[in-house]
Amino acid sequence: MQSMDKVELSLLHDFTGSLQSATGFDIEHIEQAAQFGEQREHAKIDVVLEAKTPAGGNCLLAIELKRVAYPRDIRMAISQLKEYRASFPREDKVELFLIADAISPGAREALREAGINYYDQSGTLYFRHLTWLVDIERAPRPPSRKKELAVFRGARERVVHALLHHWYTNPNEEYVSGGMLSYLSHVSTYTVSSTMQALEQLDLVESKGSGPSQRRRVRDPAALLDAWAEDWARRREAKTRWYAYAPSGNIVDCVIERFVHYSEPVEWAITGAAAANAIVPRLTNVDRVEVIVQPGEAEQLATAMGWSQAEKGANVVLIERTGASLLFPDEHPERPRSRFASRFIQYLDLLNGYGRNKELADEFRQRVLRIGKSS
Predict the structure, then answer these.
(1) CATH number of domain containing 83
(2) For residue 1, what pLDDT band results from cuts at 50, 70 and 90?
(3) What span, in angstroms and rounded, lies between the C-alpha atoms of 125 and 108?
(4) Do 303 and 342 fall within a single domain?
(5) Distance of alpha carbon 198 from alpha carbon 61, whole angstroms
(6) Could you write out the DSSP letters of every residue in 73-125?
(7) Is 1 among the domain residues?
(8) Which of 56, 72, 170, 301 is at 20 to 30 A from 104, Cα to Cα?
C-alpha cells in the first residue's frame, strides 16, 4: 500500500492506543510501505513501527493491514511478514502483526500457529514479545447477512447440503474435493468453488492444498447447520393441505403406498415429524405427513391420489420445493420403496414450530445428526 486512507489510519491509531495501554510501549516512528530485501522495489510491508519498551529496549513492529481477515485471506500476509523478519540479523527484535477491522476465529487460530500477533476492532489483542504476553479475546463481528442469504439458496444450497452429507456419512474422511462435491450436489465445479469461498469467508469451512488437489472440510458443523436453519426460517413456500383416507389407520404407510403406485415418475420425499419419528420414536402420535414435491405438481398429485383439499382436519401437507430438499433421500428399512428426505432436511423442517416438532428437533439433532450446539 502506498498510503493509508482514513479508515486504515483510524485502525492503526486504535491499535497503537490499545498496545500502549496494555504494555506501556511508546511508538516513536511510523513508516508506511516499508521496503526490504534485495529486490526492495517489489518487497514491501504495509507499516513498520519503531517502539520503545518500558524497560528502555527497542522493538520493531511489522504490520500488514486487512479490512476483514478470514483464513484464506491471511496466507500471503503471513508469508510477507515472515520474509520481512528473516531480512533482519536479529529476529528477536522484530514482532509481526496482522491488524484488521475483523479477524475470524479460524484466522486467529492460524495466526497464533504461525507466530503472528494480531489486533482487530472488537478489542481483540494478541501480542508476545520476550516476557510480555497480552491475550485479549473478544467475539468477532458477525458476518454479513447478505452473504448468508446468497449461500443458502439455489444451486449453492445444494453444495452446502452435499458438504454436510459428506461430513455425516464419512466420519473418517473429513476433507472432500471440489469434484466430489460437484458430483454429490449435481452442480458445476465453478458453483462448488464459489460456494466454498463464501463459506470460508463466513469461517464455516477450511481448506488445504491448492488447485486440483485442494480439499475442504466443515470447520464447525453446528455453526454451519445453525446458519442454514436461520435462513430456512425466513423462507415462504407453497404449502397445500389435504385429507387422505387411511383404511389401515397409518397415514404414513398410506401416503407411501400411493406414491409408490402412482403411474407417473415423480420426485417426492416425506419430511418433518413423520420422517424423523421413524428414526427417533418420541412422539406418541403423528397425525399428519409432510411430503416434498416438485413446484407446480401438488394439486395434480393430490387429485390423482384421491385426496380432498382440507384447511381443517388435513393429514397430508404437500410442500412444493426443488433443489437441495430432494437430495440424498433415504429408504426406511421397514418400508420398502419409501422415500424419506435426508436427515438434514428433516431437521430443518422440524423447526417449523408445529406441535412438538421443536422438541423432537433437539432430540433428533443430538442423537441422529450427532451435532451439539455451536460454540
Answers:
(1) 3.40.1350.10
(2) very low
(3) 10
(4) yes
(5) 32
(6) GSHHHHHHHHHHHHTSS-GGGEEEEEEEEEE-HHHHHHHHHHT-EEEETTS-E
(7) no
(8) 170
